[in-house]
Amino acid sequence: MSAPLLRVDNMTVRFGGLVAVNDVSFAVDEGELLGIIGPNGAGKTTSFNAVAGAVRPTSGTIRIGDQLISGRPPERVARMGVARTFQSVRLFRSMTVAENVTLAASTVCLTMAAAGRRAAEVAELLGMEALQGAQVDALPLADQKRVEIARALALAPRLLLLDEMMSGLTDQETRAIIGVIRKLNDGGLTIIVIEHVLRVIMELSHRVLVLDHGVLIAQGPPREVMTDPHVVEAYIGRQAAQTFREHETLREQR
Ligand SMILES: Nc1ncnc2c1ncn2[C@@H]1O[C@H](COP(=O)(O)OP(=O)(O)OP(=O)(O)O)[C@@H](O)[C@H]1O
Asked: Which residue, of 136, 156, 194, 228, is most buried by count of CB atoms within 10 Å of its CB?
């Protein structure tokens, strides 16, 4: 059997006396779309930061394929195939969309011309050709989030980490971003999504991990995880679990 694309073994991240991530292990297969959920402060973003190289795990290991990435700096991890977006959009606001994406591409391309070509490819993939000349400042939040995705894709990643893409978006905008994520995954890209909007996790994920106080309390197919009594207790709440079950039953009857 082939090795998973991402493998995290016994990862612990401490900030002084606080254990933000506590002995967490999981693996992600090539082509998989994994959702990570959990209450505020559960350690989701810290786990992303550790995988992306922005935070050094206190102990444990992280591998892409058979290469150890834990402890390596973010630029190196990016070159080894891990790209991420941030919870709050981090773009060069006075630059155009094309400039932002080209700049990201230049970290992995040998020449600026190649970076420009890469940015144009990504724009085409995301259907953003018409936005290329727009200044980021002038774009609505939903488009800025698409530019964030474009910047990450410009690195030609093997693994894409998406941190709360849907926060602040309308239902319609959320649907559009779900469509983008699904298209990327259908094209073979391995993706991990952190999301508070459970409907999004349910719709997109092949598998879900649940963190609570830094501890991995459940993992499995979305349907199973959402009705796991520990998860309901820690995060979802009984009412939401009941609503979810009714929604699923209705969907099956359709
Ligand atoms: N750089 C840091 N220094 C100190 N403490 C931190 C740091 N980053 C995160 N923490 C703490 O680690 C814990 C986990 O935070 P983290 O941001 O990973 O949670 P989260 O699950 O992503 O939460 P949210 O859903 O609110 O984004 C929290 O108690 C947070 O305050």
From this structure: 194
- Ligand 1 atom nearest the C-alpha of 38 is 21
Instruction: Let me know if domain 6-81+159-253 sits in CATH 3.40.50.720.
Output: no
- pLDDT confidence of residue 252: 66
65: left (phi over 0), alpha (psi -120 to 50) or beta: left
Alpha-carbon distance of 73 to 85, in angstroms, equals: 17
pTM recorded for the entire structure: 0.90
Report yes or no for ipTM above 0.95. yes
Quote the DSSP letter at residue 3. Answer: P
10 Å CB burial of residue 125 (0-12, 13-18, 19+) is middle
- Domain boundary assignment for the chain: 6-81+159-253, 91-156
Residues 4 and 192: beta-carbon distance below 8 Å: no
